[in-house]
Structure to design on (197 residues):
């Protein structure tokens, strides 16, 4: 073997362990809730080789069994680990900003179904703004419903309603965030305007 190849291969570890964290558990640190030896037929309980062999399987299977025992907690926005919270937000169609505090992101994911239920209404827009920014806003909605008695006839009513969102002195940089939230949560056919009072 050439000298360069030998020195390069000896410089790198052959069997390095990843640092402990999610998906990596040190051997023997995670006791199994369901030992494989307990599931064996009674005739194998006296065989030392079989017991040692299945004890090795316990080390391999224990992290998966423990994760499955508490799997329900990964789907609860209040209990899920922080790195799973954004993944859970994606399940309900939310894109939580990384700079937001963890408690705000948890509340947003928890209340996502209610936000979608009321999306496009003045109360839904106010709730969305309150939840995401903590801002109490007054929403002025033109409201109203119109329909045509003639099938395939011209659309009734006038075009171009406008929603006015009145907020009191938002923090620096929060106005752009308010603008994005209102644009996403208002009815698509309406214009909007934000007034600072």
């Amino acid at each position: 073997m050439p000298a360069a190849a030998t020195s390069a291969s000896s410089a790198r570890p052959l069997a390095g362990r990843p640092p402990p964290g999610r998906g990596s558990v040190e051997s023997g640190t995670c006791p199994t809730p369901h030992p494989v030896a307990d599931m064996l037929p009674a005739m194998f309980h006296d065989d030392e080789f079989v017991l040692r062999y299945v004890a090795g399987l316990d080390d391999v299977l224990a992290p998966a069994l423990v994760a499955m025992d508490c799997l329900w907690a990964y789907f609860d926005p209040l209990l899920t680990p922080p790195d799973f919270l954004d993944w859970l937000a994606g399940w309900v169609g939310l894109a939580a900003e990384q700079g937001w505090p963890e408690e705000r992101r948890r509340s947003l994911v928890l209340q996502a179904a209610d936000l979608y239920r009321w999306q496009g209404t003045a109360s839904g827009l106010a709730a969305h703004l309150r939840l995401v920014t903590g801002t109490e806003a007054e929403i002025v909605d033109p409201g109203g419903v119109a329909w045509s008695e003639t099938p395939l006839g011209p659309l009734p009513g006038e075009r171009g309603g406008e929603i006015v969102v009145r907020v009191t002195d938002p923090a620096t940089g929060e106005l752009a965030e308010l603008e994005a939230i209102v644009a996403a949560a208002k009815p698509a056919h309406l214009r909007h305007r934000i007034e600072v009072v």
